[in-house]
Design goal:
Helices cover 0% and strands 43% of the residues. The protein is mainly beta and 254 residues long. Strands 1, 2, 3, 4, 8, 14, 15, 16 and 18 form a nine-stranded antiparallel sheet that branches. Strands 5, 9, 10, 11, 12, 13 and 17 form a seven-stranded antiparallel sheet that branches. Strands 6-7 form a two-stranded antiparallel sheet. It comes from Cellulomonas chitinilytica.
Length: 254
């Protein structure tokens, strides 16, 4: 881990997650920390996020369709229980179930960000890395997505549809500008997903090759989200034993 003088680097050496930077829960305000704990290991100089068979659905039964998640985030907070102030609500009027203290591990502004990662996904799962506004100010909620890969868009060993771009959500100053590009990459092997981000534009790349350029990205600090998802309703039969996994070798920013 290196952090300071404009440089951030986590290469996941050792065997513990740096809890000064990462919260191993996924949007716990809408559920609880106990019910949103990530399943992960830090080994072989990498973070391994996975979803084991039988893991419960996130925010079930309020959140539909059923979604199982294992994720970490580099920031967190919420308003009080019963209120509606929190991060990335999935519907209007959603109420906080467990208040979260402010936690700001790493919340970068414009610069260069690179995430080196690989993944194992099936037609019922996906993996993603995105940066999103902290929402302390409600309009600061837009998303900058480095990658979103659904297993049903993967041709194993050959290519993958890689979603990248911007989601405006409730920020009137950021345009909706998101698309999945078909790339000739094997997502089961490590690749470097990058964002060169200024106040005017963001250039999104894979292995230093430009994939998308989006104008008017958010210019405020964002927190990073890393997660793997499973969608039981997309089961095609005998696949409940599958374990989706996102393996992150490094996160760096400067």
């Amino acid at each position: 881990m290196e952090h300071g003088a404009g440089l951030f680097l986590d290469d996941f050496d050792g065997d513990e997650l740096d809890r000064a930077v990462w919260l191993p829960h996924y949007l716990p305000a809408w559920s609880s920390r106990a019910e949103t704990a990530a399943t992960y290991a830090v080994r072989d100089s990498a973070l391994h996020l996975r979803i084991d068979p039988g893991a419960p659905a996130w925010c079930w039964p309020d959140h539909r369709p059923a979604t199982r998640v294992s994720g970490i985030q580099s920031g967190s907070w919420s308003g009080p229980v019963g209120g509606t102030r929190g991060q990335q609500p999935y519907r209007d009027g959603l109420a906080v179930r467990e208040q979260q203290d402010e936690f700001w591990g790493w919340t970068p502004g414009p610069g260069r960000i690179e995430v080196r990662a690989r993944m194992t996904v099936s037609p019922r799962s996906m993996a993603a890395c995105w940066l999103v506004g902290r929402e302390v100010e409600p309009h600061e909620c837009a998303e900058l997505c480095l990658f979103e890969v659904f297993g049903d868009a993967v041709e194993p060993g050959r290519s993958a549809g890689v979603g990248m771009g911007l989601h405006a959500f409730r920020d009137p100053d950021v345009p909706e500008d998101f698309a999945a590009s078909r790339l000739r990459i094997d997502v089961a092997e490590p690749h470097t997903f990058g964002a060169s981000w200024t106040v005017d534009t963001v250039e999104l790349s894979v292995d230093d090759a430009l994939v998308r350029r989006c104008p008017q990205p958010p210019a405020y600090p964002l927190q990073m989200m890393l997660a793997v998802f499973d969608f039981p309703d997309r089961s095609v039969g005998d696949d409940d034993h599958l374990v989706p996994e996102l393996v992150v070798e490094s996160v760096r920013g400067w």
